[in-house]
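## Example record

The block below lists the input lines for one assembly entry, exactly as stored, with component labels intact.
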Amino acid sequence: MHSVKEYVALMELHRDVDPDRVVETLKMFVGKIYQRPPLRSSVKRALRIREIYSIDVLEIEGRHVLFKVRCQSGTYIRKLCHDVGLILGVEAHMRELRRIATAHFREEHAHTLQEVSEALYAWRELKYEELLRKILMPAEALVAHLPKIVIKDGAVDAIAHGAQLAVPGISRLHEGISKGDLVAIFTLKGELVALGKALMSSEEMLQSSKGIAVNVTRVFMEPGTYPRMWKRRKEVGEKS
Amino acid sequence: MSEDLEAKGRAFLEWLDKLGGITRRWLVKSDDHTDPRYGRVPTDRSIEESIRKGLIVVDKPPGPTSHEVVAWIKRMFGVEKAGHGGTLEPTPTVGVGGETRR
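Predicted structure tokens for the full assembly:
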């Protein structure tokens, strides 16, 4: 996933430095920076730009600096620590790193392998599902950050077959969608049907009575989950 | 008491919005009902369906690679094969976790 990442890192300086200078230097890296991937990496070792969104120094104890950093995917924190050391003139290395968030998935949503194992055991051997339920998140969570459009039951199967979403099939939608935006299409029950590119703005979708609103690019729902409903002169989705 | 599926669906989407950090408001084009015979509100899924259509955020221990951890999780759940037909791979995992450097 090439999304925003958040880490807590422990940097070790190789000589004593005034803490104020350390904080000042770390803060210099907020914004766009140059980085070349290290020798041991799977990507092409070309100089590239990555963005650091924020750095918060949590604690400094002697030569150990604990800081939180929010950055673009693909940013090497190890290299950041190395470069901070260079600027301070004392050399430094990253001692420990922990990723605490990937996009909107954070530590509070995370479970250890032991917890997963116990939850599975409880379900399989003791017929107790609750531990497993607490651990599982619906796959819909992957697109939680996208603007959403809710469609009527009658439009679902067509979309599940990859058809474009026409305006009459729309029930509700998020404000602020622009032409070209990636949007997530949901049923009235909250199930993810598909992803697509908006061909209209939210306002246009709301005001229009016809036209193609979304070009479907990726389908997630099994066709046949909802019944196929033929287009009638009545509004699609209306109960007969 | 009738199951207000529409309200459950709305509540679920509000939860999703909160998770994704979305503050956009909803624009209502029409007031529609949903047929209880088809589909399920994600929170009402059976445990088997929740596994098939779910994801886990794993706090990965230092040491093993993410790929190894994903392989273990798949084995634990007994889902060796990837999904087909445009469906999401069963139980995708998203990683969080530690790597210790000396």
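The first helix of chain A runs from residue 19 to 27. Residues 100 and 107 of chain A are 5 Å apart (CA to CA).
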